[in-house]
Write a structure and sequence with these properties.
The protein is mainly alpha-helical. 66% of the residues lie in helices and 4% in strands. The chain contains 24 helices and five strands. The protein has a three-stranded mixed beta sheet, with helices on both faces. The chain has a two-stranded antiparallel sheet with strand order 1-2. A hairpin with a 2-residue loop joins strand 1 and strand 2. Helix 6 packs antiparallel against helix 9. The protein is globular and about 75 Å long. The model has no long low-confidence stretch (mean pLDDT 96). The structure holds zinc ion (ZN). Zinc ion binds next to helix 14 and helix 16.
């Protein structure tokens, strides 16, 4: 079987793309039958697959070594020509929507109405007049990614990439945690002009694009760019209020209790990564052991997941060691022409390493499962909230196997995982609402933006104090939350997904087989339904519905209390 490192890469020049795209567009416009439209659509999908594969492959090879000149140039090339390519696709989309055969295609089930709805959203997300701005936006985003990937943190005589530094943020020794955050803050501070400057540029570019397209500000455009088909700022506002009312007090109470156990009266930011005074559970082995355990787990889970993990391991579809010049986050991508998912991570010896084979592998499993879906090119696995539902739920379906990773610490890991999942909801809400406020007020100064962040922290995480932590106390936590620079408005997706994943968790406690069956169906249908449609079909409550979070908070809170009692009794 061909390994990921052996997959051939070839640039798709924009001239070739443009020529083929133009033919396809003409074919749609001149079609004399529904069949001709379908034939053109097939060609278009093949072309998109070629472009996406070339783009994803070059980006992957750049991200595993951001100092690689060849792939940096390739990545820059797609950054530069990507918007032009998108513009051709927009033209195609417009032709498809205007086709007199649309109704016939929909009625015959050849192209489902959801595809046309997603085309309509695409039209709202882009226009030829913003191509230049998009190119510029890509360039600035790249500068930020480059800056963050190359940033070194000097800690106790060693120069560490950020993922390695953050390992010390989980130290049972408070002075060590504090020092790690001080190093984090001071290093960011040394780059504060760039961090503020790049963000300021991005806000203005995005605001300009929105205004050129006739929107009041970037918020509306940002939602369309995320391809959201069935919820908008109003629904998210409602969700935010539910978080504030139903989740914030619960998390504040639980975390304050944890703080007491840690022997801390004021919970500082640097106390927040730790749950257990003796240190949080860490994987019992290194990379080898984690992958061996993952293989066993997926084989026990189901036939489908067993086949999937074998494929991933045989094709060497993981790059998990933290290195200098490697991009610092984690992601799952796929190379559609090869039906190949790929996972990048930065192992640092914490429980986060296990998330790679649960969370990221959850994404990869969905990509693998849906690779042949009829509308996969147009609809993908759904929006990002759907994709994150696949991955975050997989974290919970992996629970019965945690002793393979954590040995006798498995139940402590589960306690921590659940508490983290719940604590994430207020944080994710901050990240989302910060962006809304920033784009509603594009002329804010860096100071005003930081003040907005501090205010949100005080509202949604009143139990944490930033005082005295260099730079971060000014309200700059968001400057290393890379989504904020790189993919605006991609964040509430995690909160919506967590709300659904936690429901899968409670369903799983109740009936393992049934919950798994519903999950598998949700993954299989992926883009074929809207998010609320998928959630309803799985028999779960909409994250937006009143009462969903209140009910969930009660159930999860009760489980946490019971687990806490069990742990204390041991
Ligand atoms: Zn994810």
């Amino acid at each position: 079987m061909r390994k990921v490192s052996q997959l051939p890469y070839e640039r798709l020049p924009i001239e070739v793309f443009a020529q083929q795209a133009q033919q396809i567009i003409d074919q749609v416009k001149g079609a004399a039958s529904a069949q001709e439209v379908l034939a053109a659509r097939d060609k278009c999908n093949q072309l998109v697959i070629r472009l996406e594969t070339a783009q994803a492959l070059s980006y992957m090879r750049y991200s595993i070594n951001t100092a690689d000149e060849f792939y940096l140039a390739e990545k820059d090339y797609y950054d530069e020509v990507g918007p032009q390519a998108q513009n051709y696709l927009l033209e195609y989309t417009r032709a498809m929507l205007a086709s007199p055969f649309r109704r016939e295609l929909e009625e015959a089930g050849e192209i489902i109405p959801l595809v046309f709805r997603s085309f309509e959203v695409e039209l709202k997300a882009m226009s030829p007049e913003i191509i230049e701005d998009m190119v510029e936006e890509n360039r600035v985003v790249s500068q930020y990614s480059q800056l963050m990937a190359g940033m070194e943190f000097e800690f106790r005589g060693e120069k560490l990439p950020r993922p390695m530094l953050m390992k010390y943020a989980k130290s049972p020794d408070r002075a060590t945690r504090k020092e790690a955050y001080e190093v984090l803050g001071r290093t960011l501070q040394a780059h504060s002009q760039q961090l503020d400057g790049l963000f300021d540029q991005l806000v203005h570019i995005r605001d300009r694009m929105a205004k050129k397209m006739g929107y009041r500000n970037f918020v509306e455009l940002g939602y369309y760019r995320m391809g959201r088909l069935c919820y908008g700022p109003e629904e998210v506002k409602q969700f935010r209020e539910n978080i504030r009312r139903d989740i914030v007090p619960l998390v504040a109470r639980l975390r304050t209790e944890i703080g007491k156990k840690l022997g801390v009266d004021t919970l500082m930011l640097y106390d927040y990564d730790l749950i257990f005074p003796q240190g949080d559970p860490v994987p019992k082995g290194g990379k080898e052991e984690i992958f061996a355990a993952a293989k066993e787990m997926y084989h026990s889970m189901s036939r489908e997941t067993g086949e999937f993990i074998d494929f991933m391991l045989e094709t060497e579809a993981f790059d998990v060691e933290s290195r200098k010049n490697k991009w610092g986050g984690g992601y799952c991508t796929s190379f559609p022409a090869y039906h190949q998912p790929f996972i990048l991570a930065n192992f640092n010896g914490t429980s986060g390493d296990v998330d790679v084979v649960t969370h990221e592998a959850g994404h990869a499993f969905a990509d693998y499962t849906t690779a042949d879906n009829k509308f996969i090119v147009e609809l993908g696995v759904g929006g990002m909230e759907t994709a994150e539902t696949h991955s975050m739920s997989m974290e919970f379906f992996a629970w019965p196997y945690m002793s393979h990773f954590f040995g006798e610490d498995a139940s402590r890991y589960q306690f921590m995982h659940l508490l983290d999942a719940l604590s994430f909801l207020p944080y994710g809400t901050i990240v989302d609402d910060f962006q809304r406020q920033v784009y509603e007020n594009p002329d804010w100064t860096p100071e005003e933006r930081k003040a907005a962040w501090r205010k949100l922290e005080a509202e949604f995480r009143p139990h944490i104090t930033f005082d005295g932590i260099p730079y971060l106390e000014e309200g700059t936590r968001w400057q290393y939350q890379m989504h904020i620079y790189e993919t605006p408005f991609y964040y509430i997706d995690y909160c919506l997904a967590q709300t659904v994943a936690l429901q899968f968790f409670t369903a799983f406690l109740h009936d393992k087989k049934d919950a798994w069956r519903r999950y598998l169906a949700l993954v299989g249908e992926a883009g074929g339904k809207t998010y609320p449609g998928l959630v309803a079909a799985a028999g779960l409550d909409s994250p937006f519905a009143p009462g969903t979070l209140a009910k969930l908070g009660k159930e999860v809170g009760a489980w946490i209390a019971a687990q806490d009692a069990a742990l204390n009794a041991r």
